[in-house]
Amino acid sequence: MSGSIPIAVPGSAQQPSPPEAAPRISRRRLLWLGAGAALLIGGACRVLTGLSGFRINEVESQTPAFDPGSFRLTVDGAVAKPLSLSWAELLALPAVSQVSDFHCVEGWGVKDVRWQGVRLQTLIDLVQPQHPAFITFHSLGGVYRDSLTIDQALLADTLLAYHMYEQPLTPPHGQPLRLIVPQMYGYKGPKWLTRVEFTAQRVVGYWEQRGWQIDGWLS
């Protein structure tokens, strides 16, 4: 479904906090799982360093290519009003800026990262979900994907980011779009996003299939 979209966003529902009963796992335990995951994935992951303090594990065989002229962000599944947004339409949505720390399960992090993008809540309001339980995020490359519960997606600082440090995302950082969930480890935020799908069943993400916790809350 394409065409112009309304830019006015309905009033957002109250944003929930992460459930206190949500399963959490210690950083030491996650690091132990990460070592096991590394053995499982073998050479399937390329490591890039020296990028604004980030150590980037790239799971695609090649970095997905972004063409702003042909790009579409599909928002569909169990929704009343599915969307297919061009790059220009996405950039026309209300933009927000936030500063948040980035934490990797491997034990390193980057403090005070400046992001700009669109709140996931904005897209949720536009498409009017029909009682799904989960949201799955798909990448351009078709390999990297992950899912959140609806409550996790409604956290106030969940963001679809297209800028970092006032500049467009570079390809290794997920150009054109990446999911940012500051209260979770970085592996829960797929990069190179092209589809946001509302579902009844939970999709087990790339990293969870290789040993990571399905709910990657910071410990």
Could you please describe the fold and organization of this structure?
This protein has 219 residues and is of the alpha+beta class. The protein has one domain: Oxidoreductase, molybdopterin-binding domain (Sulfite Oxidase, Chain A, domain 2, Alpha-Beta Complex), CATH 3.90.420. Helices cover 15% and strands 32% of the residues. The protein is built from 4 helices and 12 strands, in the order H-E-E-E-E-H-E-E-H-E-E-H-E-E-E-E. A 5-stranded mixed beta sheet has the order 4-3-12-7-8. Strands 5, 6, 9, 10 and 11 form a 5-stranded antiparallel beta sheet that branches. A hairpin with a 5-residue loop joins strand 7 and strand 8. The longest helix is centred in the first third of the chain and has 15 residues. The termini are far apart.
What is the CATH H-level superfamily?
Oxidoreductase, molybdopterin-binding domain
Order of helices and strands: HEEEEHEEHEEHEEEE
CA gyration radius, whole angstroms? 17 Å
* Individual helix count: 4
Kindly report how far apart the N and C termini lie.
Answer: 40 Å
Q: Any idea how many domains?
A: 1
How many strands? 12
The helix content, as a percent range, equals: 10-25%
**How much β-strand is present in the residues?**
25-35%
Q: Could you say which overall geometry the principal axes of the C-alpha atoms support?
A: globular
Poorly predicted runs:
1-50
CATH class: Alpha Beta
Strand order of the largest sheet: 4-3-12-7-8
Q: Structural class of the helix and strand makeup?
A: alpha+beta
The assigned CATH architecture is Alpha-Beta Complex
Largest beta-sheet details: 5 strands, mixed
Under CATH, the topology is which?
Sulfite Oxidase, Chain A, domain 2
User: Roughly what is the average pLDDT, rounded to an integer?
Assistant: 82
